[in-house]
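Sequence dictates fold. Below is an illustrative record:

_____
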Amino acid sequence: MVGSRQSYYTEITEDTKKLIELPGTLGDPIAAISTLPGVIIPVAGNEPAVRGSSPADNKYYIDGLPAGYIFHEFNTSIFDRNTVQNFQLYSAGFGAEYAGATGAVFDVRLRDPKKQDIKTTIDASLLRGGIFMEGTVTEDSAFYLSARKGLIQYFMPEEDEDEDDDGVRIKTPPEDNDYLAKYVWDINANNQLTINLVGAGDFAEADFDEKSDMAALNPDFAGEAMLKDRFDSQGITWRHQFATGAELTLSAAHYKNRSKVTWGDNYFENVTFEDTLVKGQLKTPLNESHTLTLGGELDKTDFNYQARSVLFVCTEFDVECQNNRREVFTQDRSIKAREQTAYLIDFWQINANLTLESGLQYTHNDYLDQTQVNPRMAVTWYFLDNVALTSSAGRYNRFPDIETVLPEIGNPKLKAPTAQHYTLGLKGEVADNWNWNIETYYKKLKNLPLGLSEQESDAEQLYANDVTGTAKGVDLIVNRALADGWYGWLSLSYAKSDRTNERTNETRDYRFDTPVVLNLVGNYQINNSWTAGFRFIAKSGEATTKISGIEPNPVFPDKYIATYDQPFNDRLPTYARLDLRLQKDFQMLGNDAKFYIDVINALNRENIVERDLDHEKVNQTGQLFMEEEADLGIFPSIGISFSF
């Protein structure tokens, strides 16, 4: 569905335009990744899990530079719809130029600014308002600037404390903001300089009393809670085109994230993550059939951690962290990590129908004191005029989850998680406007963290590299390009993913294992002014663990916790949702404008996203009571965009 990555483009690609107009995304092209095969958005929200890998296994790039994150805390992306020229999702088998990911790579390409008189666009909906400015600076340079702010807090009704049934009172509804600026200077025909500035922030406050689920499990967590997250990044890139056709790219970037969370009995976590990167790549044609790419980067990371918190020794392998609660700890620590990466890629056009890309990547991390050499390969063979066989294989590694390798609360001797990817597929075209792609994949995951129980002989290590995993499946996408006023696509995925405790040989379904996912998207241009579209999604219920009973909380004996059946052997009900969008293009005061209506979950289907104890009743009676939490009901939204 997504198009090929290209540089120096000032226009949004046709495929990206489709994603911007996708129902249910409210004009957010990155949010449309949920319609792509192999992508699972956890029912609790947050970052996607791709083809059986963890969300933590993903890596994000903006204009070729690593990005800390591209999603706000509450799921929308940080990008204005006017800025994304294109993006690629590499869900498995990606090339040697990408480091630090064992799951998937999200490569966002921002479009270049247009050389034009300065033009301003105002965009507002029930969820977000923003301003976008673009235009010429000098004869050879141009810029754009986007600034946006979430508006949902202004439409949420004030809570009546007498109706506070769930024990949670929102003090400050979720707020978010972001900005993005890009400046491009075409120095001459062979040299270009680009400067990127990107930043985002999230904030929320709430009160949790003893009736809330959080305080029911941990009474010391009751009280005021606050989340404040902020990141800012700056990048500069110089590109030089040689007369031989070779291209040199040199980049430098700085990224800083500041996160603060407070809750309960004077608990807090203050985290500052600062990263400085220099990167270079030389791409040169050796002859008509061979192109060689040599690249490398130096990455310096400073991590500062201040906290008074409760230690939970827990990972994705665990059903519930409550049984792994340890002591309260206080820590003020800084660590430094330095990583060097180099890669070599050979692209060989063997003949008109057969291409081979082979690559080798070298990485060394001094904090882990580990070196990895990762071979990667991909082949495309058009054995028929309109049908190609594709295949890829590679080895990958990433830095461990930071909380598992910090001294005192983690194990600094952990190894880096690794993965092996294998894919095999077919792609082709049917008639003039139809194309399709079917691909099978297999991932083998190693060195995943296991949280050690206090009964283990090496419990003082807290974590060990004793979890492995597999993910396998098949993805199908059928795409109909825009013609005769309509376009659409269907994606269908079948997958199976699991994790194994190598100490006990116990294998469990992965917590985000979702065997079947169906997406159907359509958009029709009614006339020159009106377009209408829909998106339908249906997927297997997310893996869950059936609660079989209750027992006294070992830390707070007057409270209760759940006892469970076999881990992740049950499922939530099937999830299904229909989103609709109606858009009108018109002129306002002689300028372009758009009016749109989005209806999320138009059928008002009650999708169950969680089953848990009714902690209030359980703690009052000492008996088992269950409750279910449903996803958002029908949610209509309107918006307008006006350019001048």
